Amino acid sequence: MARLGADEVMVIGNRKGGSTKERVRRNFGMPHPEGYRKALRAMKLAEKFGRPVISFIDLPGAFPGVGAEERGQAEAIARNLREMARLRVPTISVISGEGGSGGALALAVADRVLILENALYFVITPESCAAIMWRDAAHKQLAAEAMRISAPEVAALGCVDEIIAEPPDGIHSDREAGTGLLGTVLKKHLAELLATPVDALVASRQQKFRNIAQFYEQG
């Protein structure tokens, strides 16, 4: 639980790690099903006390190990998708680094999905896509171009609502300036969401995700 300006909010995030040793300890940011269930408990607690939910996402995907599958990885993700879609408080998600597949979406079914300008949002990592399509991970650049995973590209596809500017060398190079830019954008969106009736908020959120990636052709 935290404060954003004068507003009480619930903040959810995952830790990826800055060094190789820490990344190994943090499972390279890939959540187990218990992590998604913990996040959902936090969301339901926020709903009980009327606090908006802000999630920060930097993960290449959910952990695909056998143990995670045995403990219900798919069920945990599916439940988060359903519950986030009908959560009766404002929700904002920020793709801060990598936003990978259903593992990221389980924390990103939100009223506002924001992305840092140097972040990526994808259905599968370029390396994995290349390994499947061409049997060679060396084609990852070609896969990335085909999938359109950069911030401007996913914004053009309607998968995110706003791109957040970063300092010239990235948000990690100047954290104070970067968090200032991020905070300004979060406050703007939160004020808009708090001014919207809850029923309208939920209906708009559900309609938004139903409309993503819908294409029609006239013959």
Describe the structure.
It is a single chain. 46% of the residues lie in helices and 17% in strands. With 219 residues, it is α/β, with parallel strands linked by helices. Strands 1, 2, 3, 4, 5, 6 and 7 form a 7-stranded mixed β-sheet that branches. A hairpin with a 2-residue loop joins strand 1 (2-4) and strand 2. Helix 2 (33-48) runs parallel beside helix 4. The radius of gyration is 17 Å and the shape is globular. The protein starts with a strand and ends in an 8-residue tail after the last helix.
Provide the gyration radius in Å: 17 Å
Number of helices: 10
Could you say which structural class the secondary elements and strand pairing correspond to?
Answer: alpha/beta
Overall geometry: globular
By DSSP, the count of extended strands is 7
In N-to-C order, the SSE pattern is EEHHEHHEHEEHHHEHH
Poorly predicted regions: none
Give the % helix. Answer: 40-55%
* Main pleated sheet: 7 strands, mixed
For the residues shown, what is the average pLDDT?
Answer: 93
Distance between the termini: 53 Å
Strand composition percent = 15-25%
Core attributes:
219 residues; 46% helix
Outline:
With 219 residues, this protein is of the alpha/beta class. Helices cover 46% and strands 17% of the residues.
